[in-house]
Amino acid sequence: MQFSSKLIENAVGEISKLPGIGQKTALRLVMHLLKAPEEQSESLSKAIVKMRHEIQFCKKCHHISDEETCNICNSPRRDGTIICLVEESQDVMAVENTAQYFGHYHVLGGVISPMEGIGPSMLKIDSLVKRITESIATDQPIKEVILALSPTMEGDTTAFYLTKKLKAFEHLKITTIARGIPVGGELEYADEVTLGRSIQARVSFAD
Amino acid sequence: MQFSSKLIENAVGEISKLPGIGQKTALRLVMHLLKAPEEQSESLSKAIVKMRHEIQFCKKCHHISDEETCNICNSPRRDGTIICLVEESQDVMAVENTAQYFGHYHVLGGVISPMEGIGPSMLKIDSLVKRITESIATDQPIKEVILALSPTMEGDTTAFYLTKKLKAFEHLKITTIARGIPVGGELEYADEVTLGRSIQARVSFAD
């Protein structure tokens, strides 16, 4: 594609490095920025650089954070005896948006995937074990770990690995999020595995 | 949506101001930037700010340019006696990408639209008239203006306005791009107006 301007070409090139954004979309964004006041481009750029430069990962749960420990771990209102185990920081945000969970989190940073060369040692599993071990001596021992991983081959493998690893803690309850028909989903379009699991794991209607 | 980080929230806020990018997409882009090396965020930001700050508009044709006059107007290889009239700089790029046109351009900066309060005086029409007038005295008088506007109400209105305005130049040929069935388009899905026009404006098969 010809841009007849090196400046435009550079900007389009950089923007189209982002996932899901091709040259045409990048050009549309550039043209939008050109029409908008210069301040918009400046505040956009500043927000990106500042975010990338200053972001930290919570020392306790590895969730993205503005400080050393995230505001979920810091909050006195949250129940530190339950840990919801997720793959990525986005998953923490997704669970937070449900407003149905008030415990702590632990971000693994991925799932075990031999295909992509990701082994257990590359995930934050040791730090989870350490976290549980250290909590035993305190007045708030971790008593439940909720596995909230994706229902993929890799997610299931990771879940099994963790279950084995955490078996040593006899007091610890290991749960997983319910699989079933999504709310608003139609039965006839559900796949057999999901439908089968949702029948096996049926709940009392009053719940 | 909860982000549990002011830095993320700001970045997502700024990115989702762009057209066609919602909060979820913005968050995906932010997460991508977090995983990528810090240099990527920096070069992205720099490219945007530099582009917005240094971009100019060609004094002759109003196309975006790195210098006072764009490289199309500057090129000795291009035919300055033909002008292709377009709405926006994107349209110049689109025509350039066809590699079928070797004349100059004139970017109107929009089309006449009473609904949006855009009158002829807000477009670069006077500068087009001036350009044609001034060219008469030179050894390369402008002899053709190709109207390459969108086939919308506004585009057609603008085309009629321009035709009337340019009638004063008796030597000037005013043409418009051909309307017809797109290459690869199927006849049965074409709308009646397009199909009708493509029959009226049929061309010899040898062409």
TrEMBL record, chains A, B:
Point out which parts of the chain are C4-type zinc fingers, as ranges: 58-73
The highest taxon in the source lineage is Bacteria
* SMART domains, alphabetized: TOPRIM (SM00493)
Domain Toprim: where?
81-182
> Which keywords does this chain's UniProt record carry?
DNA damage, DNA recombination, DNA repair, Metal-binding, Zinc, Zinc-finger
The UniProt entry, under Pfam families, shows: RecR_C (PF21175), RecR_HhH (PF21176), RecR_ZnF (PF02132), Toprim_4 (PF13662)
Q: Which Gene3D superfamilies match?
A: 3.40.1360.10, 6.10.250.240, RecR Domain 1 (1.10.8.420)
Q: Does the keyword Transferase apply?
A: no
Q: Its family?
A: Belongs to the RecR family.
Function text: May play a role in DNA repair. It seems to be involved in an RecBC-independent recombinational process of DNA repair. It may act with RecF and RecO.
Against PANTHER family, the record matches this protein to:
RECOMBINATION PROTEIN RECR
Q: What is this protein called?
A: Recombination protein RecR
